[in-house]
Amino acid sequence: MSNPDCPVAPLVDTTQLAAALQRFTDDRDWQQFHSPKNLILALTGEVGELCEIFQWMSDADSISAATDPEIGQAVKDELADVLMYLVRLSSVLGIDLNEAVTRKLASNGQKYPVDKAKSSSKKYDRL
Asked: By C-alpha distance, which of 47, 21, 45 is closest to 34?
């Protein structure tokens, strides 16, 4: 995706986190449990825990949730869990998240051109 003559900083660089998670896994001999299926289920559970924090909040309360000392820490913890499972899953599957994100962002830009999508919540096939 990048032009070697014009290097661009990656949008997502999870190299150090992936390595730290690999060490964490190796130290505990957990590789045997980290199948893609198990990691997806764990990721889904963590997303559920994040959702639970926001469940029943008003839109206004959800916007300021991260500034509340108690709720904000819970949000940070669950976001960290979601990110760690996502990075671990991408590592196990051999997927370069930067490449995936870069391609998907470009694809979304084509599906949702500014002149048609600006201020609209319509799906791309209804623009």
From this structure: 21
